[in-house]
Automatic annotation (TrEMBL):
GO terms for biological process: isocitrate metabolic process; tricarboxylic acid cycle. The lineage of its organism: Bacteria, Bacillati, Bacillota, Erysipelotrichia, Erysipelotrichales. Residues 3-327 form the Isopropylmalate dehydrogenase-like domain. PANTHER family: DECARBOXYLATING DEHYDROGENASES-ISOCITRATE, ISOPROPYLMALATE, TARTRATE, ISOCITRATE DEHYDROGENASE [NAD] SUBUNIT ALPHA, MITOCHONDRIAL. GO terms for molecular function: isocitrate dehydrogenase (NAD+) activity; magnesium ion binding; NAD binding. This is Putative isocitrate dehydrogenase, NAD-dependent. The keyword Oxidoreductase applies. Keywords: Oxidoreductase. InterPro entries: IsoCit/isopropylmalate_DH_CS, IsoPropMal-DH-like_dom. Belongs to the isocitrate and isopropylmalate dehydrogenases family. It comes from Holdemanella biformis DSM 3989. SMART domains: Iso_dh. Coiled coil: none annotated.
Length: 331
């Protein structure tokens, strides 16, 4: 039995968290939970966005299942996601986007895994007011961070029998920063001759993704590009509501839904918990509970395939609870 920490988050976070835990329990996952409310609502009540006891739980358990947390745009506190990634050095963000034949989209051949460096680039959040009309934002790329994410992507290809790794960059313009990332990729690629490797400028990557996504297998890139490109890949498979995600470091792991907290539908019990559930399946696999993860994915796919009980974003009218119960029925 493994004890994990759970952050319920804001908006729809508590609803989808409860749904996912219900499915995990019904599937007989060997898990125990330490559950905490975090985010803006908790701050209003306690003055803390993440209570100290929640941090202590994560530091003890080292595994976190996290629902979305609201981040103000253009003001207020820095993203708590970025804070967690930096605090616990969760340097690899891994987002697999795979077509599901039961979900109608324009593409039926997408199977792309994005490896995103998670701790530096523009996301260091270092900005400087030069004068009243000028702000500088600092992009930081280091050999250490670049090397470990690129090597992790190659190792993932070996472990998962993936054939090709693409480095995404803007080294034609950012010759020093992205140039460093690209040169490290080219050097490490020589150690993995069995993996086809290539590089692509980020804007061309986006165009190619929406024209011929079948050419991509695994991609690795700096932080900002990874954030944008992985959202794009989610659009190819039906949206962020279907995209799982995990963040890993040397000592800690965090599994999360990367869609927003959707405050406009919070409390209406119509949210789709699929992204968080699929992220939990990634967690189960890392905890060597692969059979449970497979059972849950099969039940979810059957629910999609039958199309009798779906949430509104999937073309149905079911509540979160009804959708969850249908998944459990299909286990």
């Amino acid at each position: 039995m493994t004890t994990i920490t759970v952050f319920k988050g804001d908006g729809i976070g508590p609803e989808i968290t409860d749904a996912v835990i219900k499915v995990l329990n019904a599937a007989n996952a060997k898990l125990e939970y330490e559950v905490f409310n975090v985010g803006a609502k908790v701050y209003e009540e306690t003055g803390e966005y993440i209570p100290e006891k929640a941090f202590e739980s994560y530091e003890k358990n080292k595994i976190l299942l996290k629902s979305p947390i609201t981040t103000p745009v253009g003001k207020g506190f820095r993203s708590l996601n970025v804070t967690l990634r930096n605090k616990y050095d969760l340097w690899a963000n891994i987002r697999p986007a795979k077509s599901n034949p039961c979900i109608p989209t324009k593409f039926d051949n997408v199977d792309i895994v994005t490896f995103r460096e998670n701790t530096e680039d523009l996301y260091v959040g270092k900005e400087e007011q030069i004068d009243e009309n000028t702000v500088y934002a600092y992009k930081i790329i280091t050999k250490k961070a670049s090397t470990r994410i690129i090597r992790a992507a190659f190792e993932y290809c070996i472990k998962n029998n993936r054939k090709k790794l693409t480095c995404v960059h803007k080294a034609n313009i950012l010759k020093m920063s992205d140039g460093l990332f690209l040169h490290i990729f080219e050097d490490i690629a020589k150690e993995y001759p069995q993996i086809e490797s290539n590089s692509l400028i980020v804007d061309n990557t986006c165009m190619q993704l929406v024209m011929h996504p079948e050419q991509f297998d695994v991609m690795v890139m700096p932080n900002l590009y990874g954030d944008i490109v992985s959202d794009l890949t989610s659009g190819l498979i039906g949206g962020l509501g279907l995209l799982p995600s995990c963040n890993k470091g040397d000592d800690y792991a965090m599994y999360e839904a990367v869609h927003g907290s959707a405050p406009d539908i919070a409390g209406k019990h119509i949210a789709n918990p699929s992204a968080l559930l699929l992220s939990a399946c990634m967690m189960l696999e890392d905890l060597h509970q692969e059979s449970v993860a497979t059972k849950i994915r099969n039940a979810l796919n059957k629910t999609f395939e039958e199309r009798k009980v779906l949430t509104f974003d999937l073309g149905g009218s079911a509540s979160t609870d009804a959708f969850t119960d249908e998944i459990i029925k299909n286990l």
